Amino acid sequence: MTRTAVSTRKTALQVSAAPFAIRAEKASDVTAREALLDVCFGANRHARTCQRLRDGRLPAEGLAFSAVREGRLVGTVRLWHVSAGGKPALVLGPLAVDPSCRKLGVGAELMRHALDVAKRRGHGAVILLGDAPYYARFGFSAEKTAELALPGPFERNRLLGLELRDDALDGAWGIIVPTGQATKTTAKAPRRTRLGALAPRAA
Ligand SMILES: CC(C)(COP(=O)(O)OP(=O)(O)OC[C@H]1O[C@@H](n2cnc3c(N)ncnc32)[C@H](O)[C@@H]1OP(=O)(O)O)[C@@H](O)C(=O)NCCC(=O)NCCS
Q1: The domain that contains 145 carries what CATH number?
Q2: Residues 98, 26: Cα–Cα separation, whole Å
Q3: Containing domain of residue 174, as a range?
Q4: Which of 73, 102, 127 to probe ligand 1 with, by most ligand atoms within 8 A of CB?
Q5: Which of 5, 54, 175, 176 is the most exposed place for a label (fewest CB within 10 A)?
């Protein structure tokens, strides 16, 4: 199987019977992305501990990617700014691939592309909560995350880290907290209407 070098291109193409492309996430991807995440993680996915690191935050700039196959979004990954016990880092997730497109290398290309861009953007470390047998192939291990914790229940053996810069997680100790830019709130303060102005005020 031939692949273009993802490390030097914005768009990664896999040349095979099932070609797909990895590209920056677009605003128009959001509906399909959320539907894919519902399929992959279930309706209660927002209750997961890792979600506490994403609530009300934007992903790190330039670090949200979609996999597209035949015009359809089939994969997603995003990375988020955190402080890992005082050390600046990124948390990766969720990573998800459409069940109909698995084992085609989509997940691996999303990971490699995301990690490559994160490194080129100068980030020092990536942390995630996931299965070591899958993520070890990208260099993740629990070696540097033993003294870190998430802000909620989690399985210790699934908290994994990867240093993009030597020693970036050395001495990392404490609870991982979100540090990304807040999403803009769209909720507006209720306008004071004529009727509202006349209505009795609650105490
Ligand atoms: C994990 C996931 C992203 C992998 O996507 P994918 O496109 O199928 O991955 P790839 O094609 O790059 O790799 C497939 C290989 O990984 C293996 N693999 C997949 N999930 C694995 C896991 N949890 N543990 C160990 N190996 C795993 C597959 O068995 C396959 O092995 P093979 O190459 O020997 O056949 C996809 O299965 C998925 O979306 N799962 C549900 C959501 C999820 O669990 N996300 C990760 C947690 S954040």
Answers
A1: 3.40.630.30
A2: 18
A3: 2-179
A4: 102
A5: 5
